[in-house]
Amino acid sequence: MHRLFKRLPLLLLAALLIAAPTAEAFAAHGAPLAGAAKKKGKKKKKCKKGQKRVKVKKGKKRSKCVNGEAGSGSAGLPGKPVNPAPPEPPQEPEPLLIETITLSENPLLAGSSGQGQVTLSRAAPSGGQPVTLGSDDPTRALVPDSIHIAQGQSTGSFQIDTTGGSSTAVTLTAAVVGSVRQTQLDIVMKESLLGLELDYQCYPGSGLTDFGANIVSLDVRAPDNVQVALASGDPFSLTVPPSVTIPQGSFNGVFGVNTLAATPAVTVTASYDGIDVQDTASIRETNSPAPVPADLDLQPASIVVGDSSTGIVELDCEAPPGGITVTLDVDYAGVTIPASVLVPEGELSASFPITTVSSTIPGQTDITATAGASVQATLTLRAIGT
Q1: Mean pLDDT score across all residues of the chain
Q2: pTM exceeding the 0.70 threshold for the entire prediction
Q3: Which CATH architecture group holds 293-382?
Q4: Lower Cβ count inside 10 Å, N or C end of the chain?
């Protein structure tokens, strides 16, 4: 018995050590124990249909239900959507169109060659842009089946080969998907005189020898050296050489004149292959009055209020050294022009801007140009939408 009492404390200690894990496991499963901590949390409430659960504050476990489909990005912390909205799709580029098809020379002499050019509405995309070409009469004007305009470029050139024969007109075509442009090529069987242009409208005095770059021109490049006859309508006032040569491969021939006496008008005639072309000029005295305005043109002469136009003042003779200042005037609220415009030395005309504001009252107003004499032109102002 005495031995039993001695062992009793050891037995009680062993029993406590064996029971301790069982108590801890029991407490971990939520069983009530004296002095145990309270439950870690309540059971979360289920969200309604169409709602989702999001955190209320960062670093805490509190949450709530909000409206919106999961992943829509329409709910969450302010400025911090759960899922950001998808990026905007890239905008489609403007349609690529044929803007123009142009010819470097028109007409062409039958049997000769020329160049054409295609211009796109915008630069060619990655890989370039093929353009289909065509001729409605390939027996007279032959072009390639297509050209390739390089990436980043908006123009491309092509060769045109013609064959001999009578004069005719051929339609050339350039096309891409969704766009077609055409132009007409004239083919002529023989060169002809196109025009005569005297270097001056008013030669600035008499006694000048071999004066000016006066030009005779053909409609096509000269197939050989072409001799064009010349004649003056008043050889006592102005003389010209008997002929001028247009060199092979060129459009123009240049000749000089001699001014002998002042005259209000003298006509020069160029003749070739039964065709005559003419131009007329005057010869002024060295002490003649300064040139004066002869005309005022508005382009356009009728505009909508708020739009702009251009004025062109033309003198009766070329401006002398230093040019001529032409004063300008308009008296209409909302219409603005410069106070003057300078016609440069040797020139016959100069242009100036005309601006209006949208509050301008529709109507008509005269614009006046003055330099020793005055000329007027009428500007029409239309209401917006007319």
Answers
A1: 86
A2: no
A3: Sandwich (2.60)
A4: N
CB-count burial class (<10 Å; 0-12, 13-18, 19+) for 87: exposed
Lookup result for tokens 């002499």: 109
User: What is the rounded CA–CA span in Å between residue 311 and residue 308?
Assistant: 10
Count of Cβ atoms closer than 10 Å to residue 70 Cβ:
12
Is 27:34 a contact under the CB 8 Å cutoff?
no
The closest of 318, 326, 306, 319 to 369, measured between CA atoms, is 326
d(CA 156, CA 119): 7
Instruction: Report angle CA 339, 290, 241 to the nearest 5 degrees.
Output: 125
Specify burial of residue 324 (Cβ count, 10 A radius: 0-12, 13-18, 19+): buried
The rounded radius of gyration (Å) of the Cα atoms in the chain is 46
Tens digit of each residue's pLDDT (9 = 90 or more) over 96-109: 999 999 999 999 99
Domain boundaries 98-188, corresponding CATH code: 2.60.40.10
Q: Where in the chain is the domain with CATH 2.60.40.10?
A: 98-188, 193-283, 293-382
Q: Would you state the CATH architecture of domain 193-283?
A: Sandwich (2.60)
Place of tokens 């009492």: 5
